[in-house]
Amino acid sequence: MEKLPDYNNRNAHEIDYRIYGEEMQYVEIELDPQEAVIAESGSFMMMDDGIKMETIFGDGSQKDKGFLGKILGAGKRILTGESLFMTAFYNDLTGKRNVSFASPYPGKIVPIDLTEYRGKFICQKDAFLCAAKGVSVGIEFSKKLGRGLFGGEGFIMQKLEGDGMAFVHAGGTMARKELQAGETLRVDTGCIVGFTQDIDYDIEFVGGIKNTVFGGEGLFFAKLQGPGVVYIQSLPFSRLAGRIVSSIPRGGNSKGEGSILGGLGDLLDGDNRF
C-alpha cells in the first residue's frame, strides 16, 4: 500500500490505496476504522464485510454545513450533468477494510494527491472515479466565453478541492506533460483528462477553410499554457462510443466486415437500403 505523507491539520480522510491491472484497472482503497471514500454511481466494484454505504447529498466535502450549503454543492454537480447524490463508503468496524472501484473502459487510473497541487485539480467531468471523504467535487467556472460557446465535450470541467487523495480515469494511454511558464500545448478537447490550477486554458478555432471542411477533426481544440502539469488521454470515451456506433450495421444486420462479401453480401441479400 502507498501511504500519503503525514500532513498536519488534514481535513480529508487519509486513505491508503493500491492499483491493480494493466488495460482494465481497478483501485483498492484500504480504510482504517471510521475512514471513508466517496464515489460516483457506477464505479463501485467490490468491498469487504463491514463497509457501510451511505448516500450523501452534495459535493462530498465536509465544508458544506447546513441545508443551504448542501443545496449549493448539489447544484454544482447538476451543472456538470452528474447526479445530485454521491455514495460514501465507511469502515464501520474495527480493523482495516477494503473497497474497490473499477475503470469504466480501457485505460489508466491516475492517483492525484491534492496536497501536491495546492489543494486543487481540474478534470474532465467524466474523469472522476473516487476520492477520500472530505474532497469537494464541483464545477470549474470559466471566465472566458469561448470555452462555454465552443468547447463542446471539453468545456465542462470539474474541480477537485481539498487536501486528500483523488482518483481520475484516463482512457487508452495516458501522457503526463509538465509545461514551463509560457509553454503552450494544443489538445483535442476530449483528450484532456485534467490539469493543475495554474494552467491557463482556452478554446481555439482551427483556422483555414481546408482544415475546417476537409480536415476530419473537430473545429476547435484546447490551448493549454503553462506553468503546470497536464494529463492527456489517447482514448476519450466519446471517441470510443463514436467508433462503436459507426460500426453497427444498419438494420441490425451483422454481415458487415466479418463477412467475406462484406457490403456486397447486403446487396445479394436484398438489403439495398441507403
Q: Examine the coordinates and then state which fold CATH places here, giving the name of the CATH topology.
A: Double-stranded beta-helix
> Average pLDDT, to the nearest integer?
78
Major sheet details:
6 strands, antiparallel
- Fraction in beta strands: 35-45%
The top level CATH class name: Alpha Beta
Morphology call: globular
| DSSP, total strands | 19
Total helices: the number is 5
- Structural class comes to alpha+beta
Number of domains: 1
Which range best describes the helical content: under 10%, 10-25%, 25-40%, 40-55%, 55-70% or over 70%?
A: 10-25%
How are the strands ordered across the major sheet?
A: 5-6-3-10-13-8
**Any idea what the CATH superfamily is called?**
Mitochondrial biogenesis AIM24
Which regions contain 5 or more consecutive residues with pLDDT less than 50?
2-7, 148-154, 211-217, 258-265
Order of helices and strands: EEEEEHEEEEEEHEEEEEEHEEHH
Distance between the termini: 57 Å
User: What CATH architecture would you give?
Assistant: 4-Layer Sandwich
Radius of gyration: 22 Å
